[in-house]
Amino acid sequence: MGSHHGRLSIRKDPFGTTPEGAGVDVYTFSNGRVTVSMLTWGATIQRVETPDRRGRTENISLGFDNLPDYAKLSPYFGATIGRYGNRIAKGQFSIDGNKYQIPVNDGENALHGGTLGFDKKVWKAKVVQTSSHVGVAFTYVSPDGEMGFPGTLTTTVTYTLDFDDDLRIDYHATVAGKPTVLNLTNHVYFNLAGEGSGSIEGHVLELNAPSYTPVDSGLIPTGEIAPVAGTPFDFRRPTAIGKRLREDHPQLVIGRGYDHNFVLGGKAGHDGLRFAGRFTDPGSGRTVSVRTAEPGAQFYSGNFLDGTFQGIGGKTYRQGDAFAFETQHFPDSPNQPNFPSTVLRPGQTYSTRTIYSFGTK
Ligand code: BGC
């Protein structure tokens, strides 16, 4: 979709108050065509409104209309995830011979930063507005020892929208005192036919991923980097998500569908990013393309949405009603010597970027 010139706008409204008495705001920013709402709770994407091929605008992001549901029920809808996206085996790792323990919250493993990750924190927000971009910079300072992680970590994640309908996410972090491990991502769930409209099995997916990281029964990588060729994990040519979802491949059985880290192929372009994947809903024509500086992405086909709660539009979310595509370093990297390192040391700057581009086809 070509760029257009509307008007950039942003507004701030109160969204709720935490039980501890902290105010939570919702920022809504728009380029006149795409409109994004974000909460200071978890630096969370609450709504993403985009037009379909006939120009009809709908919210395509799963979420809630109230803070208590986010705090109690949310499977990380739209949240900024930290310190460590995805799993760390048994919540344990060591850096320079020092051992650390993260409280486990996914069977015997730690998921998405432990029991009280960045998704459950109130972030400071600052409006960002230039002639070409509008959005919010969210900052959170995580004290040394929070959720067992070493070092005081200062994280700023900036979400901006431009006239090309690109939602850009810039992640920056520094650590003081001790080295830490870090794997930031965003956990937005999309249904390109509209939030709450049913299954995403008909969405077509193309992935720039020649291999993936198979997992054990606790969804911890075995350490192997396996080629996708000849398996239901091969999305190098556009393929409907549902086409092979019920095959008896042991990895699909373990994940109850797709819940795997894909290893991205090729080299980054001059902007440091490479194409990761594209999702297309043939019905509405909506597409989302993802580019990232990260080496991997978790493609999750909404397997654990189990019909136990209702979302923002009043519809119950059931298995496969949305997908998540979380750009990231590989799961359990702190315990996997052959995966790219996720260690951040004092004096270093963590800096990465992911772009979601919205369009129609
Ligand atoms: C994980 C899934 C998990 C989902 C929601 C994904 O990143 O890989 O296993 O159910 O997040 O928590």
TrEMBL record:
It holds the Pfam family Aldose_epim. GO terms for cellular component: cytoplasm. The keyword Isomerase applies. Its EC number is 5.1.3.3. Pathway: Carbohydrate metabolism; hexose metabolism. It catalyses: alpha-D-glucose = beta-D-glucose. GO terms for biological process: galactose catabolic process via UDP-galactose, Leloir pathway; glucose metabolic process. Keywords: Carbohydrate metabolism, Isomerase. Beta-D-galactose binds at N86, R87, H187, V188, Y189, D259. GO terms for molecular function: aldose 1-epimerase activity; carbohydrate binding. It comes from the Bacteria. InterPro entries: Ald1_epimerase_CS, Aldose_1-epimerase, Aldose_1/G6P_1-epimerase, Gal_mutarotase_sf_dom, Galactose_mutarotase-like, GH-type_carb-bd. It is an enzyme of class 5 (isomerase). Transmembrane segments: none annotated. The keyword Isomerase applies. The active site is at H187 (proton donor), E326 (proton acceptor). Belongs to the aldose epimerase family. This is Aldose 1-epimerase. It comes from Kribbella italica.
